[in-house]
User: Fold these one by one.
Assistant:
Number 1:
Amino acid sequence: MNNKFVVWGTGYRTKKLVDIIGLDHIKVFIDNNITKQQIGYEGIKVISFEDYKREYRNYGIIVCPIYDEDEIVSQLESEEIYHYLLLSMNPSEIQGYGIKDYVQRAYEKIDRGCRNIIIGDNLFTYLLYEKAHRVLNDNQIGICSDNLQNEKQFKAISKMLGCNLIAREDIQPTDRVLLAIKDREYYTYNYENIYDMSKEIPDYYNDKILSLKDTHLGETCFVVATGPSLLTDDLLKLKANGVYSFGVNRIFNIDAEYWKPNCYVFIDKKGIEDYSNEIENYQIETKCLNADTKNIFKDDGCNYFMHVAVHDHYDLQNAFSENVESVVYGGGTVVYAAIQIAVYMGFKKIYLLGVDCNYEKNSNDNYFFKTEKPDILNHDVRRMFDNFEIAKKYADEKDIKIYNATRGGMLEVFERVDFDTLFK
């Protein structure tokens, strides 16, 4: 198997990928930045897309950028290049969240006493196949895709990598079937899910979090985000009425003398790294943070470190965690994680405040506070709404009420209520 890839991108996501697969799997990088082409990245050559077409076309591509993903895919397919893989289609761990030996953990599921079929069409599938094929022959290991829409892409990359392909109709009841892609409801094979093993990985389990479970059974809370509609007067009402509140991300920009949340939630790894000092000095009784950042902070008793699993691609329907002690699912917005934590703590009525969901790129006004630099992030509002729909479905099934008390904004998934009527 040809295990060298060309990696598109040299940003933060690429850095995390390199930490997982190592430089041995990388032939060159693609980046349109001329300066990076001149100096290279991690000691490896950086080329243009034109260079790739001329000199490296026989190598499969891993596309790392998430916000430019559609544009890159269109560019590749316009050149009839189908041997590419999207980093966003992989388990959270392959994207750099969680343990680094995830492929090894999945490999331990292989049964040498029968034929093993890996169902998948992502990088994780090929990394696992590569590892297994070192000790198993073609009669013992193969891969199969269940995604007819990507059949051309699947066959192109599999042929290039020299994989043993198994047709869906040839899978037998005696085969060991390992699902390396996000579970889909229509799937009919008797399989074992290796895409999300969060609940069975001891490294992720944090028994300290169990102390939060059902501590506010049947109560009401607010999840306060950082949208521009957020008013200090509204927060003073929450404080005056003793309402339990969750605050997220840069909510610490509000003077704690006026108001501060009971529980603070920040799950974005890079964001936590960027604002670690502010988070460290934020005096909150409960802080729920990404477990990947626990080495940054002192163990002061208020920190609850949670494994965060992210599913970045549109086609990957997210999950809603009932086992926060093992996993919290990211959903394009920290508010989705805060809702999972609130439900875990037993709240039955959850109000959202400051969840505007209307972002303007390069604006200084996307938050209740003025930013010194324009907001250059590509906020994926579509993905936020998709995951809020999942939260609503779960809440409806469990007789939990989620209301949107935000003043204006774009979020219409949850029933709206007028904040001014809540404390009369």
Note: The chain is about 25% helix and 15% strand.
Number 2:
Amino acid sequence: MGAHVSGGPAFIIANLIELTKVDDRLRGLPPELRAATLETLDDIRGAAAVWDRSRKGNQAPEVVGIQDVAVTVDALESFLTTAQAADVLGVSERRVRQLADVGTLAGRKLGRQWQLDPESVQARRLAADISEGSEN
């Protein structure tokens, strides 16, 4: 079963892909899975570019309404603390801060506290699960 993504959702997903540096995180995947995933990412980026061009050309987007974009953007406003991310990843808070400092986990630092992107944390967890599964 496949998933079709176009319009505004593709645009938002493409931006999340760039934000979380997903391409870099795929290096540990088995070659066939990595190739299929990169092909899907390219398709999403292509659909996002089509939607963005139509939006800039003042043409109505085909699939998504402004309400869909607003809901998705609102969902991005929630962040995880280092403690929450550590629980999800099964690592220490110190390790989470290290991953955030080098950009492996997307987020923003406010003072001394990190606010981490939940999608980035989940992507890291998924990559770790896949890597563990390929070793068995």
Note: The beta strands are 107-110, 113-116.
Number 3:
Amino acid sequence: MFIATITGIILKILPMGAVGIIGIAVTALTGVLDPENSGNAIAYSLSGFANTTIWLIVLAFFIARGFIKTGLGSRIPFLFLRIDITYCSMILKIDFWLARCPYNPLLLSGI
């Protein structure tokens, strides 16, 4: 099931969320995770959502998507440019670097 879900995400058959939900549903319905006790199949399938690390990863995707869609990653360096427009080019280079530092780990695409 895991390989099928990853393959579906890579091939972009459906949006990533839909492929993930289908993968969870098929895993829960077939009882792959706990063949002896099929009553716990749904609980085992959904137990990953109780993990805080998973939610951290999901939020990182949301924040990165927001930075890309709004163009905030490009606007912050231009704000520094507008403030320091009279200084030399070395200060501008430092400003660009400082402007990208705080939120670079949040961006999954590295933009």
Note: The mean pLDDT is 79.
